[in-house]
């Protein structure tokens, strides 16, 4: 069954344990199922069957029920913490942030006027950082009462604008990159206040970085476009120094590439122009995956909920984390 985001709460009140199922047409195609170990009907595979019963009134502890939510947005924001999923809805009629917990309880918050959120990342217990072109905000997912500006973090020149961000190191370290040729990357550290640790210039003037993500092994990945060769690449480097460890070519694309972290310190690479995705580990080994339509964003909630976001909807699936990306 599919529901709109506004129908979630009243609908759940009418259903046993708030279980929402997927229409057959919402299930990923065969290749994606094989790569992510999804059985027919989106039920958990044998490695999860021992923990979950498969009858209609199954109670899934610590996971979100398989669900399809219709949430349109020009910018497909998606981030997860241990307890919450953060997304946005951005259309001509509506602009709001949305928080879901594991029981699909919903909270919303309107961003500041004329503020477009480019990206979101988890930052400490129940908190998220929100990146706009010129500011970084923080919200408390448990309260969802306001967006607070982090005053210390601003572009170092008035003409500069932010492009991407990620946190790591118990979420007290923040990486930011700018939307410019010869992209600069900044490393910030949270102490009593946020302090700039270092500014890097890892690419030349004919290149720009579209997205950055750090894994649990302190390895940072960047998607980089070169205007001379008209080629994209994934560059994997040491997070602390940005010293290059590995570079791997990406398919030609007219859209910027994005990155999401998945299990075993790997990155899922995708863009809004194609339904082809790449799964890459930190040694640069690539694995091709296809989906039925282009992906706007991907996240993992508690290792076993795969959350896929397209331009029109958000799809929550149950997977087996031991086999994600393995055939």
UniProtKB/TrEMBL annotation:
This is Uncharacterized protein.
